[in-house]
Design goal:
Blueprint (H helix, E strand, L loop, with lengths): L4 H4 E4 L3 H10 L1 E6 L5 H12 L3 E9 L3 E4 L2 E4 L3 E8 L12
Length: 97
């Protein structure tokens, strides 16, 4: 079953650490579906954002345990992808920020 890029890429990650990585190493971060693999993420970024991807690093992030008094809950687990763009590639969505 083939999935569309908007089904795989949930949202971009905007943190101070990833901003520094984008400026220095030409890397961008995304929150992706939990069952997506590297090949699907690479294809989705190339099709949706029209850039060439060099490599994809994927991490499973565990949700934090949160407490409110004696009640404990857990935030959901999520998957993070760090995408390295090829030399000379830029994303226009970050240029005006």
């Amino acid at each position: 079953m083939k999935r569309e890029p908007q089904d795989i890429l949930i949202q971009p990650l905007l943190t101070e650490k990833l901003t520094a990585m984008r400026e220095k190493d030409n890397k961008v971060g995304f929150i992706v579906r939990g069952d997506a693999n590297r090949v699907e993420i690479k294809r989705a970024v190339e099709v949706a954002l029209k850039v060439r991807v060099d490599r994809v690093n994927v991490m499973n992030m565990l949700g934090k345990t949160k407490r409110l008094g004696r009640f404990a809950g857990k935030r959901p687990d999520w998957k993070k992808a760090i995408v390295t763009l090829k030399e000379g590639e830029k994303l226009e969505i970050y240029e005006g920020v």
